[in-house]
Amino acid sequence: MNAMAAGRAGHARTTRGEERGTGSSPVAAIIVVVCGAAFWTLVLAGWIASAQHARQTADLAALAGAHAHKQGEQACQAAGEYARRNGGELADCSVSTGTGEYIIHVEVAVDLRPALPGAPTAVREKAHAGFLIPDEEPGSGENGRDASGAGGP
Question: Is 99 helix (H, G, I), strand (E, B) or coil?
């Protein structure tokens, strides 16, 4: 019986030795997949943050331009300054005026982070701000509102 037991023990050792390392390949594949998913999640999160930053920068630049225009100053110059202060670049700016009305149209470019080879380098967003006079008679519709949603005079 001892010989039989010794034979089984040797067989068990041989079987375990042949299976040694067989789990390494699936574990390595899982690690690669998890690391790849984490990388692309971080890239996507960075790009979403860049897009949000561009929207906020465009909104601030448009509001700064509208405020400057109301004060009799250069709207696009003020919009460009605010875009630069907030990490963006003023790509386009125009002012539309009417009788007592004005709208500042801006387009701002912000660097897309993280930067990847072959991917876009910047994200662009547009914004508008100013003051419009309502078309209806006073009291027959909504009160005058500026483009930012705040109440008019």
Answer: coil
Helices 24-70, 75-85: crossing angle, 10 deg rounding: 150
Which of residues 123 and 148 earns the better pLDDT score? 123
Among 92, 112, 70, smallest CA distance to 79 is for 92
pLDDT digits (tens, 9 = 90+) for 21-74: 777 888 899 999 999 999 999 999 999 999 999 999 999 999 999 999 999 999
16, with CB counted inside 10 A (0-12, 13-18, 19+), is exposed
Phi and psi, residue 152, nearest 5°:
-85, -170
| Closest listed residue to residue 122, CA positions, set 82, 79, 87, 78 | 87
CB 87 within 8 A of CB 53: yes
Bridge partners, 122 (sequence order): 111
